[in-house]
Amino acid sequence: MKLSIIFYVKRESEEIYNIYMKNLRRKYRNQQGFNLIELMIVIAIIALLIGVGVPAWTYMVQSGNETSAIKSLDTMRTLQSQYAGKNQGNFGTFKDLVEKTGLDAKFAEGDTPVVNGYIFKMVIAPKSTSAPASYKIYATPQVESGVQTTGSRSFFISSGTSTVKFKDGKTEDLNESSPSI
Questions:
Q1: What angle do CA 11, 15, 19 make, to 5 degrees?
Q2: C-alpha distances in angstroms, 39 versus 22, 34, 50, 52, 115?
Q3: Residue-wise over 51-90: b if at least 16 C-beta within 10 A, else e?
Q4: What's the mean per-residue pLDDT of the chain?
Q5: In 3-state terms, what secondary structure has residue 159?
Q6: Residue of 48, 105, 85 lying closest to 159 (CA atoms)
Q7: How far apart are CA 178 and CA 122, in angstroms?
Q8: Could you tell me which residues come within 8 angstroms of residue 77 by beta carbon, excluding any fewer than 6 positions away?
Q9: pLDDT by residue (tens digit) across 149-164?
Q10: In this structure, what are the phi and psi dihedrals at residue 121, rounded to the nearest 5 degrees?
Q11: All domains in the chain, ordered by first residue
């Protein structure tokens, strides 16, 4: 008797399980997934987000590169003053500033180092009997336009200026009379 009750309970629970599984299979058998319209709407939304996001991302990168270039020029102006104070009024090259004043080592890579999307160029005039030593440092964007733009403005400092000067575009046609930042 006990065995038959256990068998009956077990058999009834199996039947309930089987009914549940049949209903579950029937439910998922009728489901067909996404239709073409739904898929096209999702693709259009993604394209819209990319269309808005890429220009914003480009502007953000460009703005960050320009800020970094301005900060680097300002730092170089300070380091040039320190270097000149210790070297009888002579100004140092990128390599000198890296070795003796602590300028970032990225600037030691050649005469025109590329740092954060900007090409830096330094022109040094040694002191002579008629004029003191001077320097000019230019920062021009590596890529001026397009999706991979690194900046839209060029920057300039010299031993005769106290602020960073700028001009729109990739140009070295900057001087002491260019507008300040």
A1: 170
A2: 30, 7, 17, 20, 43
A3: eeeeeeeeeebbeebbebbbebbebbbebbeebbeeeeee
A4: 85
A5: coil
A6: 85
A7: 17
A8: 137, 157
A9: 888 899 999 998 889 9
A10: -135, 130
A11: 36-168 (3.30.700)
Q: Kindly give the residue spans of alpha helices, DSSP state H, lying in 30-143.
A: 36-86, 94-101
- Cβ(141)–Cβ(150) under 8 Å? yes
Q: What is the pLDDT of residue 156?
A: 93
Q: Which helix (H) or strand (E) holds 20?
A: helix 2-29
In whole angstroms, what is the distance from residue 172 CA to residue 165 CA?
11
3-state secondary structure of 131: coil
pLDDT at 71 over 70: yes
Query: How far is Cα 140 from Cα 144, in angstroms, rounded to an integer?
Result: 9
> Is-contact 178 158, C-beta < 8 A?
no
Q: How confident is the model at residue 69 (pLDDT cuts 50, 70, 90)?
A: very high
How is residue 22 written in tokens? Answer: 């049949």
Strand partners, 180: 165
Q: Which residues are CB-neighbours of 70 under 8 A, at least 6 positions away?
A: 155, 164, 181
Residue with tokens 């270097």: 83
Q: Note whether 125 and 133 are within 8 A (CB).
A: yes
Let me know: does 77 contact 157? Beta carbons within 8 Å: yes
